[in-house]
Design a protein that fits this description.
Length: 842
């Protein structure tokens, strides 16, 4: 087919020999799949294809027509012939060139699956899938011009305020946070006033090495006799660090003992005085993440500044970054492949009835009260803040310890928000005022404000303003709260968006992508544990959602690992759609085992069920014993035959079985570094190994058995994640006067005191179908039928202990029974005892 020159607008395309596969086509970004020297026209469709296995083609259809494509640009010439698929000029060009389908009709557009696949580069999850070269080809560096100007200005301001030569005699009062007049100190400016130079926000004040504590004492390394000696050594350490950086010996900073507790602050200080020596990326984990991505090799286990040196070496040696400013490179790396898998999303109310919203919107921040505790940057950790909060607000909250702890946690949660996290500003229980993205400024204490001085810098988007279809009861009693995935999906469907989505032409424009869904931290942690160990156990008291979490993880993790777009990884638990997804994942099809396999251990479960064993079957002489593979052996066999896809085994009640007996030699083979090694099974004599694409999740009820009683060999090979009662899911929900969150907290406080932390009550006892209980009759039924048998077990049928749990108005300790109370009176007695009451009955 001869090459024909056309005059239409050409899609942007960098030559394939440069390795670029991202093109701009009809206003959007697309991933180009090379043709391999031929193009395919289907039997009846009007699309041009590059792959025979495209799902838009009928496999083996003899009526499909193939044409040569020597230069790989037939798709481009077709696209250039007209503005869209309906343009008659395209059809005319295709007919002229003989690009006809099996029915003789001209093709008019490149297939969106096997030629040009739309890439939504506004979605950070999509950008992570791009190669470095692809990402560089589409990024717009002009977006960061203002950031470069801000960085240059802040760099100059820091050098003017603290010239490098003054560090020889720099007084501690000019360096440290926490003092009465700490604003303007080096540490204050480094963390809170120079965000354009890179963020070191988050974490605790300990990253500043020396600081003044809220309790009136200096924090410093206890190996020093006093703060003066500590500061002298730390100050000398900074000077040595600057000298090492100037000499190009960045890794020498790792040997400066006085600075080892503050690598992020030290790295930013080096960046201020010697910006040509270090990248403005201060998290050690983030540095390692980018080393692995840019080098294509696992990140070596380097000390912090050796890692900084390695990252700088890789970037300096990559000609693709020639002429780039270090701040541009930092912005690009986080834009392309942010090491945080997803962002935190919280709702924060800007004052009662959103009274401070106007100044928040105008000033670009969100604010909360609790000003008596002062600047949160002065606290080493949440425990220290909790103590100060207790002292300042105990009387206001009537000495209710659970409330004090919860509110202190809300404040600490707000201060830990990082750049890129998302804030939903709300008024009341239904109104969303805006959604904002936390900027590099992060948390800041603003003493110039009359009240509500705790703030976080936010870039607001008011297009999300709306009234939610259902009230969020928890919002009425909680200032700072996590936003669930289902609620986030509701919020990000902007008003009018559903109607617009039906008319949007996805081929002509790249649709706006809402911010990524918030990660469930439990699922994220479980995914990290599985990646590290290969197997993990969820453990905790009854009713804490272990099986619920395991199944949600299976759907979320397998959807991501399999890359199956038909699976919604965040489908709501317990719905018909969720059950359909689980059933689909558990369907082996023509394989020996499915991607998801579920079993439950029990006292009779054995090695022959799990690995292999002889089983009877009818034979010529009655019953013959035949060797049968067990569940895990079948899973491993399927995984071995399908090495590019994951296989997950969920073991419910894993501690109810005799684990050493069930697992046998599997104990050794489960280890990550022994995956793929072969042993001979003792019964069949067959070779057996555990492939690296097999993962195991177990659940364990600690009320039955503590993890301390597990076989030590098993404990070494599994990661353990604890799930504890979570009263936050019950916040704002009442049955009559009784606040369910307070009921759960108060009851568990008494159980911990008298029995132990493993025998607590989980929040799931007070949920029905995933929603908190509503009526007195429902709660009374749960107390009588579900809680009482469990509490009796915890108390070993000692009704005196039961009375300390629930109170003498409910428990008749003399007659060893419950008092005969109506449902309403039972709930009232719980309210008086566990919410209004201040302590255990005597």
């Amino acid at each position: 087919m001869p090459e024909t020159r056309t005059t239409g607008p050409s899609p942007a395309l960098v030559p394939e020999q440069a390795g670029i596969r991202i093109v701009t086509y009809q206003g959007g970004h697309h991933r180009l799949t090379p043709s391999g020297g031929k193009v395919i026209c289907s039997a009846s469709g009007l699309g041009l294809h590059h792959r025979e296995d495209c799902t838009h083609l009928t496999p083996g259809d003899s009526r499909a027509v193939t044409y040569p494509d020597g230069d790989g640009l037939t798709w481009r010439r077709l696209a250039d012939a007209g503005k869209d698929r309906d343009d008659p000029q395209r059809a005319a060009y295709a007919r002229e060139q003989g690009l006809l389908n099996g029915q003789g009709h001209p093709v008019t557009f490149p297939c969106t699956e096997c030629v040009l696949t739309p890439v939504r580069t506004s979605d950070p999850r999509v950008r992570r899938t791009l190669s470095l070269t692809d990402a560089l080809s589409i990024v717009d560096r002009s977006d960061w011009a203002d950031d470069l100007d801000s960085a240059a200005r802040q760099l100059e301001e820091m050098r003017e305020a603290f010239p490098e030569e003054t560090w020889a005699e720099l007084p501690l009062e000019s360096y440290a946070l926490g003092q009465k007049n700490y604003r303007g100190t080096f540490c204050h400016l480094a963390e809170f006033r120079t965000p354009a130079l890179g963020s070191i926000s988050g974490g605790s004040a300990a990253k500043h090495i020396v600081y003044f504590r809220r309790d009136g004492r200096w924090h410093f390394d206890p190996r020093y006799a006093d703060v003066g000696q500590a500061w002298e050594d730390v100050r000398a350490g900074f000077r040595r660090a600057f000298e090492a950086a100037e000499a190009g010996r960045l890794s020498d900073i790792d040997d400066i003992e006085a600075l080892r507790s503050g690598p992020a602050l030290v790295a930013k200080a080096v960046r201020i005085y010697h910006p040509e020596r270090i990248m403005p990326i201060y998290s050690r984990d983030h540095v390692r993440h980018f080393i692995a991505l840019l080098s294509g090799q696992p990140a070596p286990r380097l000390e912090p500044f050796a890692a900084h040196a390695r990252l700088k070496e890789i970037i300096d040696g990559d000609e693709r970054f020639e002429g780039w400013h270090p701040q541009e490179i930092q912005k690009f790396l986080y834009w392309w492949a942010d090491p945080r898998p997803t962002r935190t999303v919280v709702k924060i109310a800007p004052g009662e009835n959103a009274g401070h919203w106007p100044e928040c919107l105008e000033g670009g921040y969100i604010c909360v009260g609790w000003d008596k505790v002062g600047d949160l940057g002065n606290y080493a950790d949440e425990r220290e803040l909790r103590g100060a909060f207790q002292e300042a607000y105990s009387e206001e909250y009537r000495g209710h310890q659970a409330t004090v702890t919860t509110k202190a946690g809300e404040l600490w949660r707000m201060s830990r928000l990082e750049p890129g996290d998302l804030v939903v500003a709300n008024r009341g229980t239904r109104e969303v005022l805006a959604v904002g993205t936390v900027t590099d400024g992060g948390y800041s204490w603003r003493p110039e404000r009359d009240t509500y001085r705790h703030t976080v810098a936010v870039d607001w988007d008011t297009s999300y303003a709306q009234t939610l279809p259902e009230p969020q009861k928890r919002w009425g009693v909680v200032t700072v709260a996590d936003v669930s995935q289902s609620l986030w999906q509701t919020i990000t469907k902007k008003p009018g968006e559903a109607a617009a989505a039906g008319t949007r032409d996805r081929a002509d424009t790249e649709p706006e992508t809402p911010p990524a869904l918030p990660a469930d931290p439990v699922l994220t942690a479980l995914g990290e544990a599985v990646g590290r160990k290969g197997q993990a156990i969820l453990f905790g008291p009854p009713g804490t959602g272990k099986t619920y979490t395991a199944l949600r993880f299976a759907v979320w993790w397998l959807a991501g690992q399999l890359g199956d777009r038909a699976i919604d990884p965040l489908v709501a638990y317990g719905t018909p759609a969720f059950r359909a997804v689980v059933n689909a994942l558990a369907d082996p099809g023509d394989r020996i085992a499915a991607h998801l396999t579920q079993v439950t251990f029990h006292p009779s479960y054995g090695y022959e069920d799990f690995i292999e064993g002889f089983r009877p079957r009818p034979g010529a002489s009655g019953l013959d014993l035949v060797m049968k593979p067990g569940v895990f052996k079948r899973v491993c066999k399927a995984a071995e035959e399908d090495p590019n896809h994951p296989y997950l085994l969920l073991v419910d009640e894993i501690n109810r079985g005799d684990l050493p007996k069930i697992l046998g030699e599997l104990i050794t083979l489960l280890e990550r570094d022994k995956r793929g090694l072969t042993v001979l099974l003792p019964q069949s004599g067959e070779p057996f190994s555990v492939p690296p694409n097999v993962s195991v999740i177990g659940t364990m009820n600690t009320a039955d058995r503590s993890i301390r009683l597990l076989d030590s060999a098993l404990r070494r090979r599994f990661a353990f994640l604890e799930l504890m009662p979570d009263p936050t899911v019950l916040e704002g929900h009442h049955v009559g006067e009784l606040h369910l969150a307070d009921l759960l907290t108060g009851l568990n406080e008494r159980i911990r005191t008298h029995v132990g932390r493993d025998q607590q009550i989980g929040h799931a006892f007070f949920l029905d179908g995933g929603s908190p209980l509503v009526t007195e009759s429902d709660l009374a039924t749960v107390v009588r039928n579900d809680l009482m048998p469990l509490l009796q077990e915890f108390a070993y049928d000692d009704y005196g202990v039961l009375a300390t749990f629930l109170g003498t108005e409910i428990i008749d300790s003399e007659r060893h029974t419950l008092h005969d109370l109506s449902d309403e009176n039972l709930v009232s007695a719980l309210y008086a005892e566990l919410q209004v009451g201040t302590g255990d009955p005597t």
